[in-house]
Amino acid sequence: MGDDAAIDQLPIDVLVHIFLLINSFTDLAQWVPLAIAIVFFFLFLFLCLCCLCFVVFEKLLCRCMCLFCRASSVCKKWKQGVKQSIGRRQSLSFAGWKMDDASTARLLRLAYSLKELNISRGRWGCQISDRGLEDISSAKCVSNLTYISLWGMTGITDKGVVHLTSRANSLQHLNIGGTFITDASLFAIADNCPYLKSVILWSCRHVTTDGVLVLVSKCRKLESINIWGTRIPVDCCIAMLAIRPSLNIKLGGLL
Question: What pLDDT sits at residue 7?
Answer without folding.
Answer: 44
